[in-house]
Amino acid sequence: MLSSPMSSSGGPTSEQSMVAAAAVPFDAILMAAGAGSRLGHRPKCLLQLDGVPLILRQISALKAAGVDHLVVVLGFYADEIAPWLGGTGVRVVQNPDPAQGQISSQRIGLQQLRGRSNAVLMALADQPMIDSPDLIDLIAGFAVRPADCLLMFPRVQGQPGNPVIFTPAVRDAVLSADQSIGCRQWRQANRASALPFDSDNTHYLIDIDTPEEIESFRRATGRSLSWPTDRKEG
Question: According to the 3-state scheme, what is the secondary structure of the chain?
Answer without folding.
Answer: CECCCECCCCCECHHHHHHHHHCCCEEEEEEECCCCHHHCCCCHHHCEECCEEHHHHHHHHHHHCCCCCEEEEEECEHHHHHHHHCCCCCEEEECCCHHHCHHHHHHHHHHCCCCCCCEEEEEECCCCCCCHHHHHHHHHHHHCCCCCCCEEEEEECCEECCCEEECHHHHHHHHHCCCCCCHHHHHHHCHHHEEEEEECCHHHHCCCCCHHHHHHHHHHHCCCEECCCCCCCC
